[in-house]
């Protein structure tokens, strides 16, 4: 009779484990994202210094409350950039810029745990660059101080992002009703660590494009207006896709429209020279707005401010296109996508939203 030793059984068990692991890899390989490289860097920024001489003995510890800053520097006001380059990458990367109160998280995993635009477009072989603008998120070191509030304002964000009213979701909204998803949404809000400085932000993102070369800028909300200004600075921006730009529309001098009033405010545009403005006519631009935006003034400020933004965006599109530009404005309900919030890239139907962008990139020869 054949005798089986404990060593033999260990070898059999090991072989079975290896075989199982390999078979699992084969089964799931179609879901794997294969990267050529990934990493992070900073772009732009400033350096300030304090006069004097640094004493590494007397001032070389963090503990003293009265520690001197004499002779020391502070590197801050840069953008923080995380990038991933897939194997067999397309030539033009997508650079994703978040909105107000947000960070690069808005492009990553959705509040309900699905893949965001980061992975969706990696799977389509686009290099992706995700940034935290100066004085936000991982780019938090500011050269100017500020006070960070601990105000209880979750429900304000709930309304501004058009999830619903108060704590009630809009009927048919493309946001998960699961409490855990709402919890994740609230926890992605990100404060500024210094005063908001639009010029500083646009310089940093322009420096990013100086570093990586030609690419496509994808903005959201507050970064929409800063995106136009960055394109005026940098010819490496080959196109812009903007999700619900909320402010910062620039018009040629003499063609700035009247402010558009909304509940508790008014949306104002600004002027640039016609020579500067022409730059915006040289690149294709697409703008997307979601659902639950009224056509007429309403009392709900979470809706009414986006009515003003959509109205201004239409006027801006018309001015750019009259001067030979190529701006497409897509109101998602009009193309069959209903229920979208202020951040369609994180909605339940974000795959369909991404497909619209993919098709536009292909149509414009940017793929």
From TrEMBL:
InterPro entries: AB_hydrolase_fold, Carboxylesterase_BioH
SUPFAM superfamilies: alpha/beta-Hydrolases (SSF53474)
Protein name: Alpha/beta hydrolase family protein
Native source species: Neolewinella aquimaris
